[in-house]
Specification:
Length: 207
């Protein structure tokens, strides 16, 4: 009984508290958007690093507020907490990862995209290595011939955890510079596309 209650707290109360913290930080910081490329209402696959999840899903919702969106989330408990948190932003989970349920997650992502929805991916999730690019986002982009839209941010003042992803939380009342760019990967082979995407994603991240 105690274990069930503990699991319920982790999967329901903790996500709400994280979401509340995310919104508090978002609303108390000054934000500036930097567009390296034009971003419009067309369909994208969206990518951000795992360590930037505190801000990037909120930035996505500011840029594409009305689109139906899904995010690949690990079936592990930490992934379920992330999924339940971003669900408050109306971003629905696709359960799976490169380490478990990967084929199912890829198939569901393809179906979601073919139905006109958008998919958010952390290419180095769910457990790293940090800033390592898994094949998933590139494979989806090339198969469906969709552009990838990258979200990064830098904060003038922030906390950075000692976790594998070096998770970043901006401090209240700091300034957040959000960097957005799209990239076309259709005409590159897999390795070149991964290299191009990784270089673009590292350009404005907090190292």
């Amino acid at each position: 009984m105690i274990k069930k209650f503990s699991n319920w707290l982790e999967l329901h109360v903790v996500p709400f508290l994280i979401y509340f913290s995310m919104r508090f930080i978002w609303l108390t910081t000054r934000k500036e958007i930097h567009y390296a490329t034009t971003i419009d209402d067309r369909q994208y696959i969206w990518a951000c690093w795992h360590g930037e999840l505190f801000i990037s899903p909120q930035a996505y919702r500011m840029l594409h507020s009305k689109q139906n969106a899904f995010a690949i989330a690990s079936v592990h408990k930490d992934g379920m907490i992330v999924a339940n948190t971003i669900n408050y932003l109306n971003i629905k989970p696709i359960k799976g990862s490169t380490s478990k349920g990967g084929a199912r997650a890829l198939l569901e992502s393809i179906n979601c995209l073919r139905e006109g929805n958008e998919v958010l991916i952390t290419p180095d999730g769910p457990r790293g290595p940090r800033h390592y690019l898994n094949d998933g986002v590139v494979s989806l982009a090339q198969k469906l011939k969709l552009p990838v839209c990258i979200i990064n941010f830098r904060a003038s003042n922030y906390w950075q955890f000692g976790s594998w992803d070096r998770f970043v939380i901006p401090k209240p009342f700091s300034k957040i510079d959000i960097y957005v760019q799209s990239i076309i990967l259709n005409e590159l082979d897999l390795n070149d596309a991964k290299q191009a995407l990784r270089e673009a994603m590292l350009k404005h991240t907090i190292i």
